[in-house]
Amino acid sequence: QVQLVESGGGLVQTGGSLRLSCAASGRSFSDYTMGWFRQVPGEEREFVAAISGTGGGISSTDSVQGRFTISRDNAKNTVHLQMNILKREDTAIYYCAAADRALGISRRTAGMYNYWGQGTQVTVSA
Description:
The protein is an all-beta fold. The protein is built from no helices and 11 strands.
């Protein structure tokens, strides 16, 4: 069983930055594919970025490329999402997710993840 706890959300102005963190409990963190998803009320959960267990494989959705960076620290069982040049359309609840296997291209699919955090709100104001 893995428990995920997100932190770092908040209110920021357009063009600003935030760094989200996700702390994972349990063993063998480096075996887990980690992902970030976001959701706006009334809409489907959207893939943001994901990283393989070793950190060698990274995927991100087109709308955040060049602005968001996912990284992980396997020694500290954490994964981060550095978000720069934030836009109003980035406003959402951001969820950390873990999958207990390598996913390859499937790391973009929410249904492939076994564990989810409670989410952290990110609000970008004008």
